[in-house]
Design a protein that fits this description.
Length: about 110
Amino acid sequence: MINIQVKYTVKPEFSDTNRENIELFLESFRELDHTKFRYQIFVEEDGLTFCHHSAYLNEDIQKQLLAMPLFLEFQRQRDANLADTPEMKVLKFQGSAGSFDNVFGNFEDPEG
């Protein structure tokens, strides 16, 4: 299993576009075999700092997702609108419990 976390902050005027681009590439990810990966994105309270956590069964599925055209376009636009240097970490899985996820790994917080 490969686990990656990427955290970055975008310029204020790009935040809404970044959110739209994220939804576009996530939609393309949903067309793939969701049993081989998990991709989640969180936004900090400032609305500008995004944290992507991805977990891949193997390098093949990682390469497939990261080469998708909508993901590459998301990265291109994001990189042109960064407020600072992104931080990337490789994480070692420790464990988990519980799940709020549907089949695509999405969760809508009922409290907003």
